[in-house]
Amino acid sequence: MVLCGPIGLLLLTSVVVGTFADDGKIVNGTTASPGEFPFVVSLRRAKSGHHSCGATLLNSDWVLTAAHCVRGSTPQQLNLQYGSQSLARNASKLVQVAAIHVHPGYEPHDKYVNDIALLQLKDPVVLGTRVQPVRLPEPEQPTLGNSSAVLAGWGLNATGGVVQLQLQKVQLQVFSDVDCSKRHQTQLHSTQICAGVPEGGKGQCSGDSGGPLLLAGSDTQIGIVSWSVKPCARPPYPGVFTEVSAYVNWIVETVGASSPTPSSSLWIGQLIVGRTPPVLSS
């Protein structure tokens, strides 16, 4: 088991045992349409400007990502590029991190259980047509096996490949909990889900960690990229994600305890908790 990112950590720790022939783009994905995923942001190392992990905007002040992307880092070591699907070291839309909230139950030695973290932003981002919050599922909402889902990210196009400069997407299948554990030959946690394709060759890779798995045809985030067996998209092992619905209550509690203003409400299911939906600006 090897994490999908951050990139630097994975390249130091993973053992490359082969590669897939593919045409790039996550692993065998395609370039996202302009504005297709206005909530996806790039988590970067502030000093170098290098992309490290994916993440999603929850509102103007908070970002959702994987715990393994930020554990051991200080807020000053990170920043986020938002409002663009093209990675750029000198991007104009950057925001600093004020605080890192790693789930207290995160345990990398137990199949990366509770691999989820929240980042509180130093300054609020301005919402617009290309900058929007992601929708969270209802608390404890089940993710059904065989559901169609979409993964978005800038991760490597293959093990040993390169970071994609344009945001990529790929359509995947959600596997049932039983099938997921059977394919990985270990009992995964009930707060984890798997997605991939039965034949392999499509899915997450290094640098996609922390990014979203979305219900196909929606802006509802059901998963956070956590880990996968290498080489990337190797059959029969689907990628493993943190199941977002299992943590909605923790997200609400953490955001509520740290946000004194109503601007930090969340989009959960069909409701905007605390305010009306954001007004789109150009």
Automatic annotation (TrEMBL):
SUPFAM superfamilies to which the protein is assigned, alphabetical: Trypsin-like serine proteases
The keyword NAD is assigned to this record: no
Subcellular location as annotated: Secreted
GO biological process: protein processing
SMART domains (alphabetical): Tryp_SPc
InterPro entries: Peptidase_S1_PA, Peptidase_S1_PA_chymotrypsin, Peptidase_S1A, Trypsin_dom, TRYPSIN_HIS, TRYPSIN_SER
GO MF annotation list: serine-type endopeptidase activity
One Pfam family, short name: Trypsin
A GO CC annotation given for this chain: extracellular region
Domain Peptidase S1: 26-256
Signal peptide (residue range): 1-21
CDD domains: Tryp_SPc
Heme among keywords: no
UniProt keywords, alphabetically: Disulfide bond, Hydrolase, Protease, Secreted, Serine protease, Signal, Zymogen
Name of this chain's protein: GL14376
